[in-house]
Specification:
α6 (about 100-115) packs across α7, α8 (about 150-170) runs parallel beside α12 (about 230-245) and α11 packs antiparallel against α12. The protein has helices at about 10-25, 25-30, 35-60, 65-75, 85-90, 100-115, 120-145, 150-170, 170-175, 185-190, 200-220, 230-245, 260-270. The protein is an all-alpha fold.
């Protein structure tokens, strides 16, 4: 589908950004449709930046390290040597894009490239901040906010981290099949390996941690100038995955928890109230 800018020119990058969001982030895509038009397309563009780098790292692409370095170069010197840097430079002309969380995001991508393990819950928290909390912070600047910037960033990071912890719990079996674990060694030592049918206590512990982050993150949504309904709906939708894990018996069987479409719509509506 041909997508055009406001001036009528074709915008293939925006078309790719929208299509990517709709294809690989269906929950986020549903929430994006609630965003005000004046920021919706920039949120799509920003998501494409983060998603592209994340996919390159997950796929083990040999160019992933170079693309991370090129993003760092833009952050540190303003040098534009990649598509991601070009998109961010264009966004920075319209929004106060913060550099520090982008550098932290790069550190998180490198942790994935190096297949780092996590000894403690603090290690998991640091990882979740780097790969997802940072995304929340940058999004909060694109949407605009009122109040103390540090407080806004704290709650925006918490919401991103809650979503990342949800991903970890949803994808336990897929990650194990790929030889990865995003659970801390301390948690596994305490509750045992997350085998299907034997991980209820572990999941109860981890769900409680994620829920506390959702409470913190959703409380801060009221400080956003635009997109409050959309962000609240996104958080509520993603949180429903935790409820589905509970409904499915806390990992009684192997596999990913899938929220039925009707429950998604109900959760989205609840999130906008």
């Amino acid at each position: 589908m041909l997508v055009r800018r406001d001036d009528g020119r074709a915008d293939p990058l925006l078309a790719e950004a929208r299509a990517t969001t709709n294809r690989v982030a269906r929950t986020f895509s549903l929430a994006c449709r609630m965003l005000p038009r004046d920021v919706r397309d920039d949120v799509y563009r920003l998501y494409l930046v983060f998603r592209t780098l994340d996919d390159l790292v997950d796929d083990g692409d040999p160019g992933a390290e170079r693309r991370i370095e090129e993003l760092q170069a833009w952050c540190l010197t303003g040098t534009v040597r990649s598509r991601e840097a070009r998109v961010l430079a264009e966004l920075a002309a319209r929004h106060p894009i913060p550099v520090a969380p982008l550098l932290d995001f790069c550190a998180g991508m490198r942790a994935d490239l190096e297949r780092c393990s996590f000894a403690t819950e603090a290690d998991v928290e640091r990882y979740c901040y780097r790969v997802a909390g940072t995304v929340g912070i940058v999004m909060s600047e694109v949407l605009g906010h009122d109040g103390d910037r540090r407080e806004v960033h704290r709650t925006a990071a918490a919401l991103g981290m809650a979503m990342q912890r949800t991903n970890i719990l949803r994808d336990i079996d897929e990650d194990r099949a790929a030889g990865r674990s995003y659970l801390s060694a301390a948690v596994i030592d305490r509750f045992g390996a997350p085998e299907p049918g034997r991980r209820e206590d572990l999941l109860r512990d981890q769900i409680a941690r994620a829920d506390a982050l959702y409470d913190e993150g959703l409380e801060g949504v009221r400080r956003l100038r635009r997109g409050r309904w959309a962000v609240r709906a996104a958080g509520t939708l993603y949180r429903e995955i935790l409820r589905q894990i509970e409904r499915d018996g806390y990992g009684a069987r192997a596999g990913r928890a899938v929220v039925p479409a009707r429950r998604k719509l109900t959760a989205a509506a609840r999130g906008t109230l």
